[in-house]
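Example record used in the benchmark description.
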Amino acid sequence: MGRLHITSAAHHFDRVGHTRPYAARGARRISHETVSASGRLNMVEYVIEAVGHVRGGRSDPTDDEWGRSRCAIELDRDRFGPEALTGLDAFSHAEVVFLFDRVSPEKIELGARHPRGREDWPLIGIFAQRGKNRPNRLGVTVCKVLAVEGTRLHVEGLDAIDGTPVIDIKPVMREFLPRGEVRQPDWVAELMTAYW
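Model output (structure tokens):
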């Protein structure tokens, strides 16, 4: 199974703007800036490899009707054995972190936009919505656990298409759910009417 490398390795900026880049061949980049005690701006690197990929389910990334979508997450068997999923079938739901790998760089939103391009909905910052055109293209969804079969996790309601790289899988625990009332603007309820 292929591996996805997300990295922003060793970009060191000096005071005159020179850089020393390093990146794995074919890598995707995630970066974080820090300032050292000497005032140098450094890029801190993170390497994230996909733990697996979505197999089956939908191949079309349309916005609605995800609730009954069933698929499997197949772990990278070069890195993981069945024991990595041991005990997950005791949970009703799993939280899946995945990469919107088919969003092209020119479609990434760094500011605000109308959700789904709807002018009748307000202009909303990218971090105040869940659209796929995010700066790091990460998706997070809570889905129903159907079965664990070897290195495959079968789920329902995962809004990721066939072939999508999966970054992480976590069980949903009651104690990590929101504490207190969840509030949201009215436009969200309209947007989500047919999503699931």
